Amino acid sequence: MTSEGLRERKKRETRLALSHATIRLALERGWDNVSVEDVAAAANVSERTFRNYFTSKAEAVVATHVERGQRIAEVLRERPADEPLWDALVAAVVAQFEPAESGPRDDGYATALQGLLAQPAIQHEVFRAHAQAQDELTAAIAGRTGTAAEELYPQVLAAVVAAGLGTAMAHWTRQPDRSLVAVLHEVFDQLRAGSPDPR
Fold it and tell me: In this structure, are residues 182 and 107 in contact, taking their beta carbons and an 8 Å threshold?
């Protein structure tokens, strides 16, 4: 790996460490009881370093989603060129939740996380993160299919995948005893089948 690649990896690792620290402290203490200084200390960096990466705690919270969106697009680009597009898309998404986040999770955690993401201060950043992740995926789909990111096909497909992922995550937070990976496969199997009449 080049020195530039190593620097970029370290930056991503620092971003994620700050994001995870922000989420953990917010869940432990409550959103209004956590300062940027607290997060920086928990991540063992300076407050200035935090400010170099994020403009706010809310932006730090959703950084994990931004990173996940980037990884999905990266994995899609790396999948075999002759693999069917839908198989490649599902594999790219599911890979982000295996194995660490694939198992059952404590109901209290899921409920608390859902409440945190519903904070008014975070909602705008969540919306921006979704849009950024969808743009990344659109570009990756366009590259794989020989289309342009401005065309409808990659945009529609990226929107469908994003909606499927969001639906799976929302379902999982309501039923955290289920495997998230299993829920993802169920959602994407339905999308692949064209959402036939369940009757």
Answer: no
